[in-house]
UniProtKB/TrEMBL annotation:
Keywords from the named record: Heme, Iron, Membrane, Metal-binding, Monooxygenase, Oxidoreductase, Transmembrane, Transmembrane helix
Highest taxon listed in the record's lineage: Eukaryota
One Pfam family this sequence matches: p450
Cofactor: heme
Keyword Kinase among UniProt keywords: no
Species, as recorded: Apiospora phragmitis
Annotated family: Belongs to the cytochrome P450 family.
Annotated transmembrane regions: 6-28
Taxonomic lineage from the root: Eukaryota, Fungi, Dikarya, Ascomycota, Pezizomycotina
Record-given protein name: Cytochrome p450 domain-containing protein
Tagged with keyword Ribonucleoprotein: no
Annotated InterPro entries: Cyt_P450, Cyt_P450_sf, Cytochrome_P450_monoxygenase
Amino acid sequence: MESLNRWHVFTLAVLAYYATLVFYRLFLDPLARFPGPRLAAISRWYETYYDVFLGGKYTFKIAELHKEYVRTNCMWRTPQFYETLYHLDGRWDKYAWTYDAFGASDSTVFGSGHDAHKIRRRAIAPFFSKPNALARQEMLCRNVEKLCRRISDLDGTTFNLGAAISAFTRDNANGFILGKAYDELDLDDFGIGLSIASHGAGFMWHTTKHLRWFGPKLKAMPVSWIMKSADEGMKAFIRFMQQYEQDTRGTLAAAKSSSSPSGDTSDNVVRNTMVDQIGNSNLPPAEKRLERVIQEMGPTLGAGLETTANTLRLVFYLVYSNAEILRRLRQELVSVATTGASTSPSLKQLEQLPYLTAVLTKGLRPLFAGHMDVPRHAVSPRSLRFLTPVSG
Ligand code: HEM
């Protein structure tokens, strides 16, 4: 009887807690005055339903809600407002729960605190500078040639061009960031398993974001167990993770042991990597720990894979499905190609081609970064002023 009473008290306490929470969220929370579905105000499960159970549909639901509650101030869909909101002024945090889905909250991409982001970003920014990218032009050209050669060799057969493009972007990203040639363009199937696994990353992201316990539990499982039950895509993904973690470990150790360039080739390979950039940066020692650097490498490598591949696939589709676009583009490219020249046109020349620039910009417009919102939280109050442009 006594234990029954205890259960009553416990149940009542839980009910009282949730009733108070619902009351707070509906009436007292600073966000309560914003219009929108009351269910969404009460619980994140509203978002979970669209993202996890309807497969990443929350982005589209937001657009729908925006039309319905057009006067709301906490969402926006005017493209010109992008520059106003995602501006370097002020202090902005990312909402931890919306970014920490892959267990890499110590990385630049998925970290949430303004100050930590700033120092991490400052450490890797020189690596992503244009001169540094240009210095790798030889590697990029080599991969372009390899891609073209493989496509020519496959002439007359049916093959997966999308997978070839993914392999191309992976070879570029791995070469650029890690200084490693995994040579996926040489594989018969272009390592399609990893592409398929990357396409499933959206579902995984939504699941681990909303069901917070799921990611850590998955990580805690022995790899051998996962390998036994995983499909080919997941196996390829795990092998890739093991490979880049091992390479990061080796490169970081080498970077730390030689802080001045000796001029030998292996040393140069280490020098040209993001791991070395971090290892020899002004970051405090805690930021140079192997576990932290691995957390930085995963999302950054991931950021350079299917984003770029999807954009290229879209550009190829745009160009090859419209004879007029293809004709104009070829005509413009011919204008900078010197007959019999052994070198390709320079980046500077290509950047000055208006039609090529327009085609690439169009391919970038859908922003294939993933179906995720990128909310910001103003740490210091900052008023955002934006006047909707008058059309016509
Ligand atoms: C067409 C290709 C790409 C698209 C559409 C794209 C899109 C994006 C977007 C939308 C963000 C902002 C995420 C946020 O604020 O939450 C971002 C951040 C980032 N991306 Fe990309 N990206 C592309 C290619 C790349 C490549 C090739 C790399 C590196 C190899 C890269 C590395 C990064 C990094 C490091 C960040 C974090 C920057 C920061 O937080 O300061 N991205 N990207």
